[in-house]
Request: fold
Amino acid sequence: MFMYEALLRRAKSQSPIRVGLIGAGKFGSMFLAQVPNTPGLEVVAIADLFPDQAKATCASIGWSKELIAQTSFSDDAVEMMQSVELDVIVEATGDPIVGITHARQAIANRRHIVMVNVEADVLAGSFLAQEAEAAGVVYSMAYGDQPALTCELVDWARSSGFRVIAAGKGTKYLPSYHMSTPDTVWDHYGLTSSQAEAAGMNSKMFNSFLDGTKSALEMAAISNATGLAAPSQGLAFPPAGMDDLAHVLRPRAEGGQLELSGQVEVVSSVERDGRPVFRDLRWGVYVVLEAPTEYAAACFRQYGMNTDESGRYSAMYKPFHLIGLELNISILSAALLNSPTGRTKGFHADVVAVAKRDLSAGERLDGEGGYTVWGKLLPARTSLEMGALPIGLAHNVTLKTNIAAGACLRWDDIDIDARLEAVQIRKKMQPIRADHVSEV
Reply:
């Protein structure tokens, strides 16, 4: 890509890429930590619900007093985008409702938008991507997050002439984690609540990673960007280490565990009895590919690829991701190359709300990572046929009916304000192709 040379030219000409950040949480602060080390890039404005706290964060990660003083801080992201001259907006709030508003405002102001907010992307990404394309701006996944890194591997494999069999990431998973709540989450991380609080760790956010919701959202984002299918009954989370990816993640007809050839999946870093998986991929991403010819399969063997016993299936992987520390790549790609680091292209997969326990009419849902629901990956067509409630809209709404533990919630089960922008957009959004598309 050779972006660094172009970046140096921007620095030399004193025309830096101007960035506005919305949300100075963990992801945002990791990105901000790299800014003083990046010539030709400036964060000129930061919008956060707590501007003083955002300033304190900048100081704690190494920003100089001078850099903080020349940066605009506010609690109004829309006003920031309207009043400050910016090239790229980074949306890192994690709130699907406000994320949609911020993305549309960025597009309306002809700003490139990097969506760290996978929650908003899964809820309405195909609509937002179409709006951005019509406006002539880039709508992009966030490099450093696992969806963008996985999409990069898929693009590499397809561009090299390989058929993609599976793609996804690793995580720590046991079936019981679906019932985890903010009260129990730290037991699974080996922390006390006081230790987590002292470290500034948000129990609800971390619980969304543990209970499977974040995995479902990230796989939906990959499916919608690549056309790889969502499994019909949700993620299976098969245990698999780096050396076993090509063996485990191949079609069932070939001795593997995949329902479909050409799907997303998450591998667990622990066996179902809790034993650790050897050389696990908990922090990484992968793609499983198939040799198109016997000659290519022979080359796999000759060059030390990690294959299954047939020699036809192999895997490429990256064992880590650095989230905000790598976000510059998306910003530079948008500003310098006018290109996204992955983007939504269709509506192939969805994430629906599932009851963690028996729920009663009149209860308020508390959304992703909370006490009431977790998010399950489903094909978009299945979600639409069910009238299923997207996890992104399962927050601060009241149930009209009783829901049994393990049941998917539906739109008809809740009272929700139909005037909300996110609700209106979601209702308008139709699947471009909600069936299995393995090569797009």
